[in-house]
Amino acid sequence: MQHILNVEHLKKYFATQKAVDDVSFSIEQGAIFGMLGPNGAGKTTLLRMITGIFFPDSGTITFEGKKFDPVNDIIRIGYMPEERGLYKKMKIGEQALYLARLKGLSKAEALEKIKFWFQRLEMESWWNKKVQDLSKGMSQKLQFVTTVLHEPALIILDEPFSGLDPVNANLIKDEIFRLAKNGSTIIFSTHRMEQVEEICDHIILINKGSKILDGTVKNVKQEFKENIFQVGFEVKPATIGSNSIFDVTGEKDQSLLLKIHDGYKPHDVLQYLLASQHEIVSFNEILPSLNDIFIRLVEGTPMARAFQSA
């Protein structure tokens, strides 16, 4: 798969603070890429270098196969920052048109695309409203539209669900999936782990300016699994306890949590339970959540803000 973005040994210092310290990663075309970390970890600084707002102190950025050129390449990028940049007293329709023209669209093209997105996100009645009259969630939808309407190759979304109710969050999430399916590449920056597990293909974790984890969601969860299985029974047995094959670490309703000892496999557990003549109705491996993994990785290190799982 072709890489749309390659970041190599990127560094950015502010006085004595290492905001980004030797970070490297690659993003495949059409991927939904999660950039994770607590607030203050360096995510926004990294995104601002990728968009040409900041220049790196050292390192290189390659975009669509060539060295990133902020002047000419920025038109191929859509950036939705966490700190929103809308003009509060300007009418919404006029603002969307103005921003679309800045991104190189003719007036006719801009109007066509704005009408498409306003209809798609149920914003048609907003045209003559002002941003100052919108809720935070409504402003978020407008910011999303102005980020994607020029059909950028790379879309960067920094905390895109902030302020959205569940219905509108699902609406935006569906559009993210659709955009990626149609070939756009998405960088999704957040500290909300449950959103990442649901949306992203590949993730990196940034903490204190450094990359401490890089991989697909599936591979990361497999790497940190702890050999714990949940076994459901027709009737929960009272006679099963820890033994040479596994430890019983918990129970819930008609099921037990079992941690398999090193050197043993799941089929060893099943053979043991079947030999004990217990009727098993389910047998599932319990993988750690991303929130659990990341808390474990950054535990004991200074963080500006803890990860959130809900």
Task: Considering the chains and any ligands shown, give keywords for the structure.
310 residues, alpha/beta, Rossmann fold, 10 helices, disordered C terminus
Summarize this structure briefly.
By secondary structure, this protein is of the alpha/beta class.
List the helices and strands and how they pair.
Layout: E1 3-14, E2 17-28, E3 32-36, H1 43-50, E4 58-63, E5 66-67, H2 70-73, E6 77-80, H3 92-102, H4 107-120, H5 136-148, E7 154-158, H6 166-181, E8 185-190, H7 193-199, E9 202-207, E10 210-216, H8 217-223, E11 228-233, E12 246-252, E13 255-260, H9 266-275, E14 280-286, H10 290-298
Parallel strand pairs: 3-8, 3-9, 6-7, 7-8
Antiparallel strand pairs: 1-2, 1-4, 4-5, 9-10, 11-13, 11-14, 12-13
Can you put this structure into words, describing what you see?
With 310 residues, the chain is α/β, with parallel strands linked by helices. Helix content is 32%, strand content 29%. It has a 6-stranded mixed β-sheet, with helices on both faces. A 4-stranded antiparallel β-sheet has the order 2-1-4-5, with helices on one face.
